[in-house]
Design a protein that fits this description.
This is Protein MMS22-like. The protein is mostly helical and about 1150 residues long. The protein is built from 55 helices and 4 strands. Among the domains are: about 220 residues, no CATH class; about 130 residues; about 160 residues. Strands 1-2 form a two-stranded antiparallel sheet. The chain has a two-stranded antiparallel ribbon with strand order 3-4. Helix 16 crosses helix 22, helix 29 runs antiparallel to helix 31 and helix 44 runs parallel beside helix 46.
């Protein structure tokens, strides 16, 4: 019989390595062997070798006494190496210490098996034969002797020098030849074997373990005490700064023994209502605390005993992350049991020994270790309880004037004076989100624990924990106490309340904070810095309100009163306070939501300030669900039993809705979109196979398919893409879905369009699968006229662009109006809800990405080629208008204009096919397009006073037809060249003039009719504005440049008709403007004369005639007109 079970050491414990050794006692099933031994042990016909004696297993027990002596001898050999002796060690090379451990463990395991083999027969044997009874008495005595031998050896653990605990671990495992290694590991193994032997003896050789429960519990407590003693010896040599990185296990075998004891003791507790594992630990820890307090013996005396107790509880809590099979599940393991009572007792002891008043020498160093350990236990492992937070709060509230947060290293070592309100809030938020504790003070770690606890447990529906914490914190402050705080105390106070505000009831916390903080408008040189900090804390409240989109109505007046006061002061503190307020004010007004009472921040301070201021783990679970789902579907096809049905029903009940909702979570689906899609497909398949079950849970194949394939609120298009690809892999599913969903093919087309646009270049193979499917559809095939067109569509990387352009060509071949109407309706159906998803991948951070540029290229191509198909005059909110307004003329997202300007000409030219003249709304769109994009497309050149007009803007005139150009010019003139009552022009009129100048100077790069219609449409508007504006208005010079550009244009020079049209327009305008504004009219004529004498000469006869009529009719200012005219004639003669 092979019974050699031993631990196999892997050296020191790696903090992040939770894998158990496969050759260790745990994974060899030792706990199961003890708790649930085999029903029958067949020792007959088997031999066993015990201490080099080969004998029948059934009768070897008769030599129990001899074997006890052998074992005792071997243990004594090991005991010689408790203390390192160089001479002794040099004589050990021929000794196989691992063999000693093996023969001892083999003997003990044989005893245990033998006891199991006679279970139930022990008492009956006594009544049968007195000889047997005598044998059993002997066995009982030898068992007790064995226990005494073991206990004597185990007690020697206290003789082992402390240093041995540190150097005995070895990565060589049982191949290690070091005597101390095997001596120490014999201690570890014997502790388990001792407990298992006692348990086996009492369970199977007596009436009940309950009769000997106290004795058994005492033995278990002894073992626990021994292990804690070892941990204490390890702890004593660890510097405080390294405690978090160290464990109480000096080797992996100790950790494995702790785990075995934990599972074994808790299993017995559940079965027999005996002590729990934590009960043993707590009794030992209480003994430590009491012993340390009474200062009796130095054996267990420790300087930081409370820290040690917390440290050991923390690491033993992590062991609860193992399941009964030895797999580490972490905080999700069902074995986890809290031990709050002991934690509370430890903290109370800590507080009573100077932790509350800061009398301990290393209180903050200790708290820097304790709090992170408590944070992990309280927030991640155990059910929430406020008591820990309350006890820790007792360590700080009396010491808030100590510079906790000022001890922080890293970027937050800025002085308080240099920190802004945003810095204060940013530090609070980063503290809550930062996993690293190294750079934080003890108070900062407490705030992180407090915030993390509240963030996890606070909700509007359950405020139990918050109410408890709120009462404990609020009760420690009053207005008077806060007013007496130093700068440090105020800083710590503000950090505390900002932490509460970020994680809980923001309005309530901010209200209390503002009420407690002193007024900031009255200060002097002695307390100015303190009031500046108070002001920053109050401004942080404003930022919080803005971040959480809370209405400012209740708090804004508190700020305005202060602002109106300090804005009138000229001292440095007032300026600093105003500067801080302006930064926050700017942040709030930059918010996209301006309906939160921001107007209440406006007051008389603005005027004064302007006057005086300076210039300056889901993936794992989903995989399990997928596997079980697939297995259920497979088994249900073979034999649909009730168990399978219940499993599927459970999946429907508890998973289906969650899978639906996962598509809205960008964090989860970003990494696990394939699992979501796979589960969605499985539910769809099952709904097709068993619609009644799906309906019972308010699902159907149709609703599932529509949700995952066509829902516009799916955050990650990859879910839709992968979902459809999996569907298309199974012909039967396609066939069944088409029966349920009449517009199945349309949904596929819509999904392909969506994937091609916003999922471009991510997984071309999957998009190609969708494309190959829709290519088989007759409606898609009809779009392409030739085989080459089909090949181009199939092989082009930008197949969506090919699809759009060929769709336009197809429409142009339709001759019957009704056919075009039906074609357009189908096209709009393909692109329905386009505006709801097309901008999803684009944010301010990704606006310059290749994907963003591609999306806008698709938008431009779609409008350029198919605007007439998207537009419907009878529908005010047709796809065309919605798409333009949301993507090109977006008000909510101004950053989109940087993309829109790249497609400007495509949008304008796309509108050419629409009947713009008959639809005022389209004209407004054109006006808005020019209004918003001219400043982006006309850019001043560096170091010159000229402007560069983008080709995208000029292309609108170069590629458009004459009628559309005329319409554009008319829209530009009527909207940008009107004079307001105060003789002010539109702010972008000068940009239109720059465009016209570029068109006129472009000579033959542009068609003649462009120049002609600029003359016919634009000239009168431009000159009329010239007449009305004030003398130094820049439009005057632009007008002269405009006339000069016309006169110097090659088409103008070559075409007499053009000149005559221009002369007539000038003449008509001048004639009407004489009476309106004599000065500006003659000023214009003088300017034209400097450009071209011919133009003025052509005008002279008509002007003379007009003057004569004025003189005959004795009109006012006729003499003045005559004088100005004579001066102009004299100049003409000099030319």
């Amino acid at each position: 019989m092979d019974l050699c079970f031993t631990f196999n050491c892997n050296g020191k414990v790696n903090f992040n390595d939770w894998e158990l050794d496969k050759n260790g006692l745990f994974l060899q099933g030792e706990i199961e062997n003890v708790l649930y031994p085999q029903e029958k042990y067949f020792l007959l016909d088997k031999n066993i070798q015990l201490f080099d004696c080969n004998m029948p297993a059934a009768t070897a027990f008769l030599d129990f006494k001899h074997f006890n002596k052998c074992m005792n001898m071997q243990l004594k050999i090991l005991s010689r190496h408790e203390i390192y002796d160089q001479v002794l060690s040099s004589k050990t090379h021929d000794i196989d210490f691992y063999y000693i451990r093996c023969i001892i463990s083999k003997f003990i395991l044989y005893v245990r098996i033998y006891l199991n083999s006679i279970k139930g027969n022990y008492l009956s044997l006594e009544t049968i034969n007195m000889d047997i009874k005598t044998i059993n008495v002997d066995i009982e005595e030898e068992l007790n002797s064995l226990f005494i031998i073991i206990k004597q050896f185990l007690e020697r653990i206290y003789n082992i020098p402390d240093a041995t605990f540190h150097y005995v671990p070895s990565k060589l495992g049982n191949q290690c030849t070091q005597p101390e290694y095997h001596m120490y590991h014999m201690h570890i193994e014997l502790r388990w074997f001792f407990i298992s032997l006692i348990y086996t003896k009492n369970i199977y050789c007596e009436y009940s373990l309950e009769n000997h429960l106290d004795e058994f519990e005492n033995i278990q407590a002894m073992i626990i005490n021994d292990l804690i003693y070892i941990s204490l010896k390890i702890f004593e040599t660890i510097p405080l700064t390294h405690v978090q990185q160290k464990t109480p296990y000096n080797c992996t075998c100790i950790r494995e023994l702790w785990l075995m004891l934990q599972i074994f003791i808790d299993s017995l507790s559940d079965r027999m209502k005996s002590k729990t594992f934590w009960k043993y630990i707590n009794e030992c820890i209480n003994g430590l605390l009491n012993r340390n307090a009474s200062n009796n013996t130095g054996q267990f005396l420790c300087k930081n005993i409370e820290l040690f107790c917390l440290w050991i509880i923390y690491h033993l809590s992590l062991l609860y992350g193992y399941n009964n099979d030895g797999i580490y599940l972490g905080s999700k393991c069902s074995r986890i049991r809290p031990n709050y009572e002991q934690l509370e007792k430890i903290l109370k002891t800590y507080i009573s020994k100077g932790g509350k008043d800061g009398e301990r020498d290393e209180i903050d160093e200790e708290l820097c270790i304790m709090i992170p350990l408590l944070n992990i236990i309280v927030t991640n492992w155990w059910q929430p309880r406020v008591s820990i937070i309350s006890l820790l709060w007792d360590c700080f509230h009396k010491r808030l004037d100590e510079p906790f947060l000022l001890q922080v290293s890293g970027p937050w070592t800025l002085s308080i004076e240099k920190k802004t309100s945003m810095d204060l809030l940013k530090q609070v938020k980063e503290r809550l989100n930062n996993i690293e504790y190294i750079k934080e003070s003890s108070y900062g770690m407490f705030l992180r624990l407090l915030g993390s606890f509240l963030r996890i447990n606070y909700s509007n529906n359950d405020t139990k924990y918050w109410n408890q914490i709120k009462g404990r914190i609020y009760s420690k402050f009053s207005k008077g106490k806060v007013q007496e705080f130093s700068i440090t105390g105020l800083y710590n106070f503000i950090s505390l309340f900002l932490t509460l505000a970020v994680t809980t009831d923001t309005i309530n916390v901010c209200s209390v904070m503002l009420d407690l903080l002193p007024l900031t408008k009255e200060y002097n040189n002695e307390n100015s810095k303190k009031h500046n900090l108070i002001w920053k804390g109050k401004l942080a409240v404003l930022i919080l309100y803005n971040d959480f989109r809370l209405n400012l109505t209740n708090i804004a007046p508190l700020y305005i009163d202060t602002i109106n006061t300090i804005c009138c002061r000229k001292d440095d503190i007032s300026r600093s306070m105003m500067n801080n307020f302006i930064d926050v004010f700017n942040t709030i007004l930059s918010s996209s939501n301006i309906q939160l009472g921001q107007h209440l921040l406006f007051s008389g301070w603005i005027d004064r300030y302007l006057l005086e201021c300076s210039n300056k783990m889901v993936g794992t679970l989903m995989k399990v669900l997928i596997n079980i789902f697939e297995q259920c579907i497979y088994l249900s096809k073979i034999s649909n039993t009730g168990d399978i049905g219940q499993l599927l029903d459970a999946l429907w009940c508890y998973v289906a809705c969650r899978v639906r909702q996962l598509v809205f979570d960008p964090v989860v689906n970003n990494e696990h979109y394939q699992y979501i899609s796979k589960l969605a497909v499985l539910f769809t398949m099952e709904a097709l196979r068993n619609p009644a079950t799906a309906k019972k849970h308010k699902h159907s194949a149709m609703s599932l398919f529509q949700h995952f394939a066509s829902s516009v609120i799916v955050k990650d298009i990859r879910i839709t893409r992968h979902y459809l690809v999996l569907i298309l892999e199974q012909e039967q599913i396609i066939h069944d879905l088409k029966k349920e969903i009449k517009n199945f093919d349309t949904i596929l087309i819509q999904a392909w369009i969506k994937c091609s646009i916003i999922d471009h270049d991510t997984n071309k193979d999957e998009i190609k699968i969708l494309q190959n499917y829709i290519l088989k559809l007759s409606d898609i095939q009809d779009i392409f006229e030739t085989y080459n067109d089909l090949q181009e569509f199939q092989n082009n990387d930008g197949s969506i662009l090919t699809f759009i352009m060929h769709s336009m060509k197809k429409r142009n071949t339709l001759k019957i109006e009704q056919e075009r109407i039906q074609y357009d309706m189908k096209w709009r159906l393909y692109f329905s809800h386009l505006e709801k998803w097309i901008l999803l991948p684009i944010t301010e951070e990704t606006k310059d990405s290749e994907l963003a540029l591609w999306i806008y290229r698709c938008i431009g191509t779609l409008i350029l080629c198919t605007s007439i198909m998207l537009y419907s005059k009878n529908q005010p909110n047709n796809i065309f208008k919605i798409l333009v307004n949301k993507t090109i003329l977006s008000v909510e997202h101004p950053f989109l204009k940087n993309l829109g300007k790249k497609t400007f000409s495509m949008i304008i030219l796309g509108m050419e096919t629409l009947n713009v003249r008959s639809d005022i709304s389209l004209q407004i769109i054109i006006r808005d397009l020019f209004d918003q994009y001219m400043p982006l497309l006309i850019i001043p050149t560096i170091n010159t006073n000229t402007f560069k007009v983008s080709d995208s803007l000029l292309k609108c005139f170069k590629d458009a037809k004459i009628d559309f150009i005329c319409l554009i010019l008319e829209i530009l003139m009527t909207n940008f060249f009107t004079i307001s009552n105060d003789n002010m022009m539109h702010k972008h009129s000068y940009l239109v003039m720059i465009i016209l100048q570029n068109l006129l100077k472009g000579e033959k790069n542009y068609a003649c009719y462009i120049v002609e219609h600029i003359i016919l449409i634009c000239t009168s508007y431009i000159i009329k504005c010239y007449i009305k504006v004030h003398d130094h208005h820049p439009h005057k010079q632009q007008t002269i440049d405009f006339i000069s550009s016309i006169i110097n244009n090659i088409y103008y020079k070559e075409d007499n008709t053009l000149r005559d049209k221009f002369h007539n327009i000038i003449s008509n305008i001048i004639e009407k403007s004489f009476i309106l504004n004599q000065h500006n009219t003659f000023e214009l004529l003088h300017s034209i004369l400097m450009i071209s004498t011919e133009v003025v000469q052509v005008l002279s006869s008509k002007l003379e005639h007009t003057l004569i009529n004025l003189e005959i009719n004795r009109r006012p200012n006729a003499a003045s007109f005559r004088y100005s005219w004579n001066q102009l004639q004299n100049l003409i003669k000099k030319q």
